[in-house]
Specification:
Layout: H1 3-15, E1 33-34, E2 40-44, H2 49-54, H3 61-72, E3 81-84, H4 98-115, E4 119-123, H5 125-131, H6 137-140, E5 145-147, E6 150-155, H7 158-163, H8 165-176, H9 178-190, H10 213-216
Parallel strand pairs: 2-3, 2-4, 4-6
Antiparallel strand pairs: 1-3, 5-6
Helix pairs in contact: 1-4
The chain binds uracil.
Uracil (URA) binds next to loops.
Length: 219
């Protein structure tokens, strides 16, 4: 199957998915959108009110700020792929629950494998939690790690910066570093044919919180 076909199939599957209770209140599933050949994939938390209506990720206030952040990094939405850890809206925008995250995991993993991005930017703690069990965002935001042969960069969720103005500049600075990090990720992937070996920290027992992120980042 081509990447496009896989992404289409995932979108169709999420539209009819009943793997967790979120489908009861779903209007539209939000599988994600963007370039099937994206070098960077952004993974948020889950659809909010507007996303549930439109079936598209990050179309509300957090999405407007995300567009601004992408522009800071010289990126357009069409170039990247944007999705969430859960594809259906948690009622009232509550946190996604463990069983919902688990139920939705195969969709995200299929999308990642199909797109094969050089860099994944996690937006917020639930997305970060897909890759690291115990990272603290305040300590590791903007610092790259490697998992499954790609660079993972944890970032604050754009909505957090909207609620906490002191984070706004922090998030903007992290995004501004993205072009340089993508270039580094691509160079590392090019010069390491064994991508599976680019997995330098995350299987270790303690994960990034107990280690120095710079030491773990292979640079
Ligand atoms: N917040 C998210 O995490 N994802 C969206 O799609 C919208 C808001």
């Amino acid at each position: 199957m081509t990447t496009e076909e896989i992404l289409k199939e995932v979108a169709q599957q999420t539209a009819g998915c009943t793997r967790c209770d979120l489908h009861y209140s779903r209007n539209k599933s939000v599988p994600g959108t963007g370039n099937p050949r994206a070098e960077i994939m952004f993974i948020g938390e889950g659809p909010g009110f507007h996303e549930n209506v439109q079936g598209l990720p990050f179309v509300g206030a957090a999405g407007q700020f995300l567009d601004e952040l992408l522009a800071d990094a010289g990126l357009k939405r069409e170039e990247v792929f944007i999705t969430n850890v859960v594809k259906c809206r948690p009622p009232g925008n509550r946190d996604p629950q463990a069983e919902e995250l688990d139920a939705c995991k195969p969709y995200l993993e299929r999308q990642i494998a199909a797109i094969n991005p050089d860099v994944i930017v996690t937006l917020g703690r639930f997305s970060m939690g897909h890759f690291f069990n115990n990272g603290k965002i305040s300590g590791i935001h903007g610092k790259p790690f490697w998992s499954g042969g790609r660079m993972i960069i944890p970032m604050y969720h754009p909505a957090a910066a909207l609620h906490q103005p002191s984070l706004r500049e922090v998030v903007k600075q992290d995004f501004a570093k993205l072009p340089e990090m993508v270039a580094r990720a691509q160079e590392t992937r090019r010069s390491n044919p064994d991508l599976a070996a680019l997995n330098n920290s995350l299987e270790e027992d303690n994960g990034p919180e107990d280690n120095n992120a710079e030491q773990l980042s292979l640079f």
